[in-house]
Amino acid sequence: KVFNDPIHGHIDVHPLCVKIIDTPQFQRLRNLKQLGGCYFVFPGAAHNRFEHSIG
């Protein structure tokens, strides 16, 4: 699978990685805030664990 990144261009992801990313356990990381309660003080700090796990 190929993803388009505005900075790095096209990124080819290995099929095994795509299978792992598509699991419910990995997708659950989208709902976990990377910075915890900082989101309430700094609304722009909306990073999640999914983004950090992808790299």
Automatic annotation (TrEMBL):
<dbReference type="InterPro" id="IPR050135">
    <property type="entry name" value="dGTPase-like"/>
</dbReference>
<protein>
    <recommendedName>
        <fullName>Deoxynucleoside triphosphate triphosphohydrolase SAMHD1</fullName>
    </recommendedName>
</protein>
